């Protein structure tokens, strides 16, 4: 007789106690039974990262290989030879697995044994398998003849029938209309729409309603709000300085427009990741990259601290992590961010792959980018910009195209128009300059003087220059910007100081500088409005010679001073300029540059100073010039013409987005190309390993992780290649993900109830074949999301009632298999918008800058003080749809937050749906609700007597006619407390707050 081991005896004893032991012939499913077991009980210690004993149970290779001990955890087809089975049945505390917690149950051990005996088949995770469109099952039951009207229903019915479930009856017309209207446009049906639908006996009546709603512009508003949850869109930076982003709103309008146009989903994906590169002629594709900047931004670390500090490097890695997390969570339902510090413990994502994704976005920052809303203007500006950029190279290479006769004729005409005898503006070369103590002036190549050092309250500059012109009729003073100055100069927008300058000029023959005499000046012509300047603060109060520098960051200024009488001194003039400045102490205001002209009449103001090389050429007769000189003149003339053409275009708009094209702000400046990204050991900036190269993920069998990059050093090319990888129809994660999200928007629960995590620790799909059918048909429909919505809302399962059935609830309490419709509370935006709609105050204007439904005052630092409570409830801004609210990241609207509007600091794949006392208090006492109840009462005042008015309120609020008993009760309440209060308590009923 063979000896039986204690472990085997223990296993047999456990199996004998099992309430439902598995039969030998029963096939065990890896997806449904084994994977949840291994990942729930084993993978914590035996995963990809530092597996104990060298055993990895997250994938088949690690589970079936020989260990250092010589044992093999799983031997396919041989359960008795599998060390794993021996360990889970052992009674020895030193050998038993799992070592802590409860042992595996007899049923779990039996399933594990049967699975190994079957051959231990370990298929790829369901989310990574190719999408194969399944054939809808042909099934009918005695209880449901003819119930399935779409393929969706056939998949649903099969799962119900296998569990002894059956679908609920169809919802009544009023309930169904209210449900589909809120689902598709986020607003209630009007009483007239309800009456028309209820009275329409046509079989096509519901289909017509669906088509009307899908065509409504409000459809895009509703769907955009869902998407804004996914990408944690807000209009402030978050972090410690929650600075507003005044130009984030165009991305929201892009979403609304895209959903309304039914943009193919593949293109929708591509535009948000790399629309500026892939579709440069479409301005909306540039706006789409607002997606990359939808998350928070650490202003302190990414802008204000030293550029080469280790904290700046850390901040860049964290900022890219937010981008990578948002992109992959939103589009691919993947938790790649879990691999930032080590290989993913549960999913086949290495740390190397994570940093390869960071490398894709290594040249992107979050900033305001200029764009042209009109495509033709965008194309024109791009053409002019490219031509301007090519000119220097053309000039240096002596491009013969610049000798084209037509261009040369233009140059000749331009040259003639300059009237050389009068002379253009000549930049003066300072011979001598003096300044107040503590201030230094450094001469720059362009003739300007760069100021630096500590500035006293009153500065005096003295600049001496010689001018060789037949006559001098005026001078021009410019104060230029410079990146080395505080806030770039020349003024400080944030302190409001006035910068007043007195300007004095003396003239003398070059040969006799001591004979200098004052020059009488006319009042200056300047690029600022002198009105409001307190000229009495100038040193001598003389309005004629005072010149103001408007306190605006980063803007150069100029003023032209005409001489009352032209200066004519043989042998040249030595001019001495004195600038007396009064300004806020210690502030650098820019660098001055002086020019002189001999032009007669009105002095040119806008014309640019000619470079010395061009001025020199103009002094040589045309017949004595060679090709080099002609080409130089042509390039200069053409450049000025292109600049004039550029300035004639409408000013561009701004969008806050992911970009490397933005105006530098201090040390926060765009990168010339992708920044280097290194794999960080344990996620530590102090432990960099090898450099990361841009790549995608490798676990999708039919899709290579290698990106098709002709130029890996091109930032845009990296994003474009990755966008194509995401949108590829073989990218099974992306297409399953969006199908799952659309389903969730209609049932409140997704087929995969971890919509941002399709990995091994996420939820398994309740209806895997249905999910694949939805994804496959979406691909066949060329990515039409409207068609996917149409398929779902016209299915029988969607049209069910939400009535409760105790018998079926005992089988499927969570309604995973949809034997009834889920009853859902209205979300925050739908509640607010509905209140406005029924009161008659809803402003349906679409698009444009977000409305600030709060009072904003400056804060101590950057974050403003935001007061929602004091905002005027009758302000027109309060009547816009909720999707157009300005969204603070760290300062949410208390009313909306109470109603579960999500925290914009977090990705929100599904909203909480709580029922709390705070919500009741908000709906009873918030002054917005109180005021709209007054408006609603006023709206129905002319509708007959009290009974008629109450009936109208019911129709507006609940979409139905009240019963006689309800009219009596509400009429009595209104008589005691007023009709507005009656409206208020009806707004607090479950019938209003919930959708059946």
Offer a few descriptive terms:
Jelly Rolls; 38% helix; 996 residues; 33 helices; single chain
Provide a concise account of the structure shown.
With 996 residues, the protein is of the alpha+beta class. Helices cover 38% and strands 11% of the residues. Among the domains are: 6-123; 425-609, Jelly Rolls, CATH 2.60.120; 927-995, no CATH class.
The CATH topology of the domain at 425-609 corresponds to Jelly Rolls
What does the largest sheet look like? 6 strands, antiparallel
**Backbone CA Rg:** 37 Å
The CATH architecture of the domain at 425-609 comes to Sandwich
Number of helices: 33
Overall geometric form = globular
End-to-end Cα distance: 68 Å
Tell me the structural class: alpha+beta
Strand content: 5-15%
| CATH classification class of the domain at 425-609 | Mainly Beta
Low-confidence stretches: 1-25, 492-498, 529-540, 584-588
Helix fraction bin: 25-40%
**Mean pLDDT across all amino acids:** 87
Question: Helices and strands in order, then pairings?
Answer:
Layout lengths: L5 H12 L12 H12 L18 H5 L18 H7 L16 H12 L33 H11 L11 H13 L5 H9 L5 H11 L1 H14 L18 H13 L3 H14 L4 H5 L11 H6 L5 H23 L18 H10 L4 E7 L3 H22 L8 H13 L8 E2 L4 E3 L5 E4 L5 E4 L5 E10 L4 E9 L18 E11 L7 E2 L6 E2 L19 E4 L7 E11 L5 E10 L8 E7 L14 H7 L8 H22 L4 E7 L18 E3 L7 E4 L23 H13 L4 H16 L20 H13 L4 H9 L12 H6 L12 E2 L2 H12 L15 E3 L7 E3 L26 H5 L18 H9 L1 H13 L6 H13 L5 H14 L1 H9 L2 H4 E2 L1
Antiparallel strand pairs: 1-15, 2-14, 3-6, 4-5, 6-13, 7-12, 7-14, 8-9, 8-11, 8-13, 10-12, 16-17, 18-21, 19-20
Helix pairs in contact: 1-5, 2-5, 7-9, 10-11, 12-21, 17-20, 18-20, 22-23, 22-24, 26-29, 28-29, 29-32, 30-31, 30-32, 31-32
